[in-house]
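Researcher: I'm comparing several assemblies side by side, and this is the next one on my list. It has 483 residues spread over two chains. Same procedure as the others: predict the full complex and return the structure.
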Amino acid sequence: MATATPEAVEARIVEALASFGPDIEQVTRDATFEELDIDSLDLVELAQIVEDDYGVELKGDDMKNLKTVGDAIELVVARAS
Amino acid sequence: MSRRRVVITGVGAVTPLGVGADVLLRRWVAGESGIADGEGACRDFVATDHLSKKEIRRADRFAHFAMVAADEALAQAGWSEQLPYPTERIGCVLATGIGGLNSLEAQHDVLRDEGPKAVSPLSVPLFMPNAGAGTLSMRYELRGQSFSVASACAAGSHAIGVATRMIQYGDADAVLTGGGEATLTPLARASFASASAMSPSGFSRPFDTRRDGFVMGEGAGILVLEEAEAAAARGATVLGEVLGYGSTSDAYHLTAPEPEGRHAAEAIRLALRDAGREARQIDYVNAHGTSTPINDASETAAIKLALGEQTARAIPISSLKSSIGHLLGAAGAVEAIATLGALNQGTLPPTLGLEQPDPELDLDYVPLTARPFAPRAERPLALSNSFGFGGHNVVLCLEGVA
């Protein structure tokens, strides 16, 4: 299991989201999932990656409230600590 | 009121002979084969050359083929910039024999090795048979009826037939149709081999005495069908017309065709009657011609039964599967495209590998080399046969413009 430092979590989430479609430069903390064309199915895959890497289990309700990349990073860092 | 007519205004293909409908016909007519190591893989197809990272990730390989073939077909029809009809009046009927088998097998590995929580939420959305139709509907914003047709190796022709009826009946003014298949996977290979359907020698040589099964291929063929008057009103270039569609079932065996070809023959008769044409007017028959011992015999019997033995002997027949293998649910669509191209070029494409004719099969299968033909009427006329596991028989009657 990887250590969930804020830097590591950010790098991992940005990499995962970029693998779903958007260019990596577009995946900033302020970017919204809507802008990035990341939908609910993508977010479930993101949750699976996060659980694999950090042991953080995210439920559907957790994901529903996420609007930006930053929201996702903060949620994972908070849950992992 | 006379029946609405259905014309073809665009075609696109991804096949073992390359990316494009032109390359398919050109290489087949030249006698080239897309089969290597006993399979017709689309080796020239590189998804990233045509599709974005997201498009690739959100669709199975069979839908990748369909998207690229559809882009080509729509460009030829002149639809790339703007849809020529209200979006609610455009349908999408896409065939597949099996669906996204690569995705299914990959996710089944994940399930077995990592457990259910690791299975991708995209699993079913990628491998469901209707994924191709849904993907194309979304890609081009087509909001008329869209669904998939699954009748194994007859599906591509069923899709074109159903799409034709949809326009004739007035439910749509245009339909994007065809089929996609990508099943060069361990499970499909093992299953077809166990069923003794696939060639152990790896040669596709329809109607040859040494034929020992089909060679599996992959790819897609897509056609743009439009109501004839609407197509003319917008100044579309017409490639041909779907004149007739006939379909029956053997109700005989899960995999074997009815050996006397009686119900396949009835499908041929129905297609001709639907087209309002006679057997003696046919310039060419594109055979299902799988290279299995039983198909090629029962198909020959069916053609003779339906057209009359003497008439049948005078009609050239050939099989595209001799060049690209069997594209299962995409086969009928790719074969309709190749048939149309052959009609419009005045060429009879060859049955490759037919070096030792089966003495029991005595029709003109255009062995080995293409040859020119002169249409019997003003416009060239062909039948395209498709038969599927499950006993499905489909015949299309297509007219060219040359």
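Model: For your comparison table: Chain A has one domain: 6-80.
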